[in-house]
Design goal:
With 222 residues, this protein is of the alpha+beta class. The chain has five helices and eight strands; from the N terminus they run H-E-H-E-E-H-E-E-E-H-E-E-H. It starts with a helix and ends with a helix.
Length: 222
């Protein structure tokens, strides 16, 4: 009887583990990236959360492809991209355009590798996702860099389903802040940028532990 119960538990947990693995894979179903992960428009190599020598406001570290891009990559790897007087943006609004997104979105998230936002000192930029206002009043201060994560609000998800695209517009407005971007990433899942999803190996270990505990208890009771 105890043996049958144990076998049942082992099989159940294995099935549970396989289902979890499937779900884990689905979490990484699709991402779209504008720019790359090769550094900022501030003269540093990479990655976030370190200092840079951003004393050159018109720093331009773009590749040839980035310079000719029209999806928003032209705004990465430069410092002060959305400010008048600095290449490549003649106006004051930078747009990152993700296209071909289709419909059927139920959730989504974005992350940006960005540098040197100082809203409290120089004024906040105005940022919209498909025209829907977002809060980008960041105060990292000179000369910090950061990767920021955003779960998309439901109205943004709805707008992606309606249009099949996501347009991130960054308007410098009255801000005199200088800042840079390495890349912008979009995912059709939330939680991809956190560590809340257990690894399959963790699930199997957990399953093994539960089986062990069940067997121990069984032995104790008998
Ligand atoms: Ca980076
Ligand atoms: Ca680049
Ligand atoms: Ca700045
Ligand atoms: Ca880059």
């Amino acid at each position: 009887m105890a043996k049958n119960l144990s076998i049942f538990l082992v099989v159940s947990l294995l099935v549970f583990g396989m289902v979890c693995m499937t779900n884990t894979n689905n979490l990484y179903a699709a991402t779209w990236m504008i720019g790359d992960n090769d550094g900022y428009g501030a003269g540093i190599a990479d990655n976030a959360n370190h200092n840079f020598n951003g004393y050159t406001a018109n720093y331009d570290g773009r590749s040839a492809a980035e310079k000719t891009a029209t999806n928003g990559a032209q705004y990465t790897d430069t410092y002060s991209t959305t400010h008048s007087g600095y290449a490549p943006q003649p106006g004051t609004v930078a747009t990152f355009t993700f296209t071909g997104l289709g419909s059927g979105w139920t959730e989504g998230s974005m992350w940006f590798d960005m540098a040197d936002f100082q809203a409290s000192t120089f004024g906040a930029v105005i940022v919209t996702y498909n025209g829907i206002l977002q809060n980008w009043a960041f105060n990292d201060g000179f000369p910090h860099t950061k990767v920021r994560f955003f779960d998309l609000e439901q109205n943004v998800v709805d707008s992606i389903n309606a249009t099949g695209e996501l347009i991130v517009a960054i308007d410098r407005n009255r801000s005199s802040d200088f800042y840079g971007f390495d890349y912008a990433m979009l995912s059709n899942r939330i939680g991809e940028n956190t560590n809340t999803v257990p690894e399959p190996s963790t699930i199997i270990l957990l399953g093994a532990g539960l089986v062990g505990a069940a067997l121990l208890r069984k032995k104790k009771n008998s």
